[in-house]
Queue: 4 jobs
Job 1
Amino acid sequence: DGIHGTIEPYDGRWVIFHDSMVDIVIDLKAIKRIHRFNIGCLEDQVGDMYLPRSVAVASSTDGDHYQLLYTHTNPKLPTQLIRHTVDYHKEGLAVSARYLKVSFGRARVSPDPVKNQFVIDEITVR
């Protein structure tokens, strides 16, 4: 909807995942030139919401063969209880694609999957 989430995790603008891996495929409906993207995430350790362990973005013209554009790994979890937002982004791209696949790997903080949530809001592509 184009409205970014606030620092409040229950403001109705965040999507919460409990899965160990999540792939989101965005169909742009036609091959378009992509210059940048931005992915918003929230970390609220008191609420058992952590940054994803990994974030990757890949592009494709046919939906079958993807080219990796971006990868980021959060190698460790912060040691203090915090609530903040983080944007994963890349600018200066010059890629033609119809599909973008955004892949998230969950942080494995606890054996209880409810305590391993990750939270995203807007994924913008320009």
Note: The beta strands are 15-17, 21-34, 37-44, 54-60, 67-73, 83-90, 95-105, 118-125.
Job 2
Amino acid sequence: MTRRRILGLVNEIDAPALEDGARGADADLILASSVDRLFKRLSESEWELCVVSLSAEHVDDALLERLAGSSAAGALILTARGASLNAALLADRLGALALLREPLEAGGVADAFEALADEGPSVELSPLEEGQDGRTALIGESGEMAEVFGTIAKVARSTSTVLITGESGTGKEVVARTLHTQSDRSEGPFVAVNCAAIPEQLLESELFGHEKGAFTGAIAKRTGRFQRADGGTLFLDEIGDMSAVLQAKLLRVLEERAVERVGGREAEEIDVRVVAATNQSLSEAILDGRFREDLYYRLAVVELALPPLRERGDDVRRLALHFAALFAERHGREIRAITTKALSRIAEARWPGNIRELRNVMDRAVLLTSTDTIRTGALRIGAAAPRAASAAEVARPVGYPATASLAEVEAAHIAKVLASVGGHIGNAADTLGIHRNTLSRKIQEYGLDTPDHGRAP
């Protein structure tokens, strides 16, 4: 395997740390003594990485712009004295992989160098279709989603109520908006209300409206969400959290197709299609007496169950590519691809927060990526353990005393991961999302033993 070649221009005091970091990352380092020597080296051969100190003699913005535009320079890492917003902005503008703080430390340098580790070929981002804004895009080719798409196609043009079920973050509102946009009501309003987010005493007024003076604080007549959605679709999210009193009033509105404002005396006809959603088991709520059975049957004329992300196979990758392209465009980032290793890590995560969590992870990854390719270092996945873990493992409580130091917590977690992979350094490094050299260094630092292999060298 060819060793990586790194070219550096740093202050003399930082040279030893740079050399040690290069050895730790299994790379060859050449130090240039001046700006002239740096560009002479660039004219003679190509490099995978250039490390340049902002405090080195004759280094300015113009020189760095020239360096960043040189194909021979490869990737760029900057170093600077102390913390500086201007330096951080410059590093981001130049597309630097990292901005290291001087005086340099060998460990931090090695970690930065490992960002260049081979993560496999890159996969190009999915092009966005015209008009896709992330709120109405249904992405997926799995069998589970094929069933969802088929149901949407059959019922979208009807006026029947639809009940969407599924875990939090599975895309229930996206499906509701799709039902609206694909219906004959698409030119009408789409009005959404989260029944769990509005206090019970206010939810009735929000839904049905109120007359002036109907209660303390009702200083003017108010139009409710039902009337605002007239001619369109009303989306009632978290319907399982609605009180028994409001359930009875909602049932009456659905049956009579008319609403009466709080404090009013006459009902007004409405033309509204209702789509409801919940992450609860309404059948259990009915047995517990928390939800009306007659309202359930009135809402669930068509019931549409959304699968959790962990059960959608390769849809995880497709969604990751879609969200990366979406946020690259939204944030003005010239990102064109994501590495196969990063995609593999995304595919192996459990995603307890489902699509919402994946969306947030990709949004953050785009913001943290300064080059044209998203790598594993930009991913901040909260639950990155493989899906194959047993239910018992998932349910097992994990904790540590509040008096533990950060080093103690890190050492304990590394030891646990090593045990789970039989002491295999490469697999443990993949699980932890770090380079194997970094893991080896930490194992030595904490004096850990690797199962079946004794103490790590």
Note: Confidence is low (pLDDT under 50) at residues 383-398, 452-457.
Job 3
Amino acid sequence: MMNRYRMLATVALTLMAGLLTWGIHADTAADEQSIHRLLDDFHAAAAAADQQRYLDHFADKGVFMGTDDWERWPLDDFRQYVTQRFAGGVGWSYRPENRYVAFADSNNTAWFDEIMVSERWGRFRGTGVLVRQGDEWKIAHYSLTILIPNESFAPISKLATSGFEARALPAPDSGS
């Protein structure tokens, strides 16, 4: 008799776990679609120079990482830059080619990477972290990097290194 109760309890727990897992996967699929829509609209807002719509995609403490070494923009600083940049009605346009989304076990945090193309500048990778705020996903961290084919890296590395060296402050006079 005791084995029968254990077996029924095991079956019940297995069914409950299966239902919970199914619910999580169903929510994840819907969340993934929401994230794709958010990121597509994020890029569309930038192309339209729609400042408010673009910035509304960020979490309150969001950060944008640009392609230069000094470009770490907390949202308030980034807001000032975007205001100036979009003032003339011109934004920037990146067309996503593919995107991957993954979720933390809590389903309240997600991360993504995407390959994008700019007609003017070429291929980029955007990576980021999203957080759930209420019923919405928001960008907590977005990083934009320029893609360089491995076979082209050496000459571009030399060019970048010389640019960083030219930008550097001169060494202090040692008094000799």
Note: The mean pLDDT is 87.
Job 4
Amino acid sequence: MMVRRSWSLLGICLLFLSSGATAGVAALVDADWLEANRQEPGIVLLDIQEEKAFARYHLPGALSAPYSRWRTREGMYPGKERLVAYLGRLGISASDHLVIISTGLSAGDMAASARVYWTLYMLGHPAMSVLNGGLADYARQYGMKGLTSGAMEKPAVTVYKPAAASQNPLDAGEVAAALKRGDQGVDARSVAEYLGLRRGGPKERPGTLPGALNLPYDWLTVAGGGELLPVPAIKRLMAAQSIPQGGAQIHFCHTGSRAALTWFVDHALLGNGEARLYDGSMAEWARQRDL
């Protein structure tokens, strides 16, 4: 525990200095930071557990914002109008510092948090963080007594106005052009999917994007759990997979969820402003025979 706590304090210091979408705001925070800052003005806890899980356990004052509400039925980016309306219903303003909290039991939970972070980044929200280890790590360190249960109290509705111009997700044509320019594809799926031994759906062709390198998203967490590896270990892992440190990169998986975690690490933690996420990923690409 002492070793992990020491990394957390060092990591937070480094992350405040890292560049990225939210300069001056830590992209990754731990349970200690959350406990010290969660009641500060302007800090809003965004719990992305589904409603039944939220009703069982959550932090007092947290907003219930289930992960499923941040994507379309097909798993894609929902668009500016829908997001603005949703954030307004939650009572959120562009000046709020949003702390994204998942259950934190798996790499998939961390990927979900990273996907919400990316969605807010695309909208132009300036200040958001992901809780490393999620609610599970907070409970391990501060106990279940600090949590509460029940449905969310209905927040006062606001008119959400993005602080910056929103961006549009990449489509298949833009990705194809970027790959031809020399952008590096980073496949966040499993080794079996990357090699074409498994496919995401019956209508998809097996394989990966031309020239892509493989970085399975769950390798970025401790034993596939809900805690990210320390940055030095992440850098060694990327080097072992021959993935460049910086430069134009396109992260993808099946529908842009798992790849959100590799994008988050590259963009928000390592400060690579040229890292992008391909929202449609293989679900879009592999169905087009001309690609």
Note: The mean pLDDT is 91.
